Structure formats: structure tokens, C-alpha cells
Amino acid sequence: MEDSQPRALLPCPYPKLFPSQLNRDDQFFMQLAYNQAIDAWRADETPIGAVIEFNGEPIAHAFNRVDATKDPTAHAEMLAITKAANFIGDWRLNECRLYVTKEPCPMCAGASIMARLKEVVFAVPDPKMGYLGGVLEAHATPSLNHRLNVRSGILEDQCRELIQAYFRLKRVQSKNAHVPNAIDEDQLT
Ligand SMILES: [Zn+2]
So where's the catalytic machinery, residue-wise (predicted)? Predict the structure, then answer.
């Protein structure tokens, strides 16, 4: 019977990156966010990672933990923003820049505005749920008195491949997981 149980963990076939400490550019911080996304996959979560930069240093690392915490707000960006606020000792993150592997959803776009982040840089645009350009431009709301800068496209192909491969392999896994059950049922009749 145990053989028919679907495996809980889908091994991540992608290695982590080794960003050069010498070049603290967009690539560097997005590669750190990518590595967080790998950690998410290894924890059996949708592979999305986030890093917050302050004064050229990564001060907060986080990955999506919705399943583990059973908390719909446990997106990588939300967790990273909380960590950064704890680090800075202030809810205002005016001098901070958020790097995230996928365009923020409505919740995370809202949190980025409420945290008064200087800038959000994301890798993969999300035309279905992205609220920093994909579906809506939350940061362009005319009544906002905070200006949030948004850029995208850093490490886009690599981050997209990771997310797409995760869902592709998940589908294969759940399809295969049903095969033994089907055979068991046949044997009972
Ligand atoms: Zn989100």
C-alpha cells in the first residue's frame, strides 16, 4: 500500500548559482533570489524567491512558504519585507530594493507600496496575477504619495524555466502517482 502513496517531495534538478561577491549588481541580487527559489523547490513549495538589498547588502532572504505554513500570505516578498523591517528597525523601507523571481501579486505589490520600498525588480512578468505591470500597475495609482520604481527582466529566462519546470514535473508526478492506485483498484475487482 505504501508504494501507491504519491511522493511528497519532487527533487529539484537545478543547481544553485554562485553569484560573484565582487559585482553587487542586479544580476548578483537576482541570483540570490533565484537561489531562494531553489530552496523553495527543495522544500516542496512553488519556486519563488526574494531578496531585499540595502546599502549594497542583502539584508533579507525569503522563499515562498504557503504550503508549509498553511498561510496564504506567506509569499516570498511578504516574508522578505518583514525580515527587512526587523533588520532596519522601521516599517519604512525607503532605501531598500526588493528582488523577486516573479512579478508580485496584488498582495505583495500592495505590501511593497505600504513598506515604501524604493524599487522592486522582478524577473518574470505575470500577465495573470502580476500587479506591477502584468494585470495592473498598482504603483501607478495616481493618489499614491509614495513613488515606487519598478524594473523587470533580470535573469528572466532562468527564473521562468525554474517555475515552469516545477509545474511540469508536478503534473507528471501526480499523473504517475495515480497509476498504482488504478492498478490496485483493478486487482480488487
Ligand atoms: Zn505575492
Answer: 77 (proton donor)
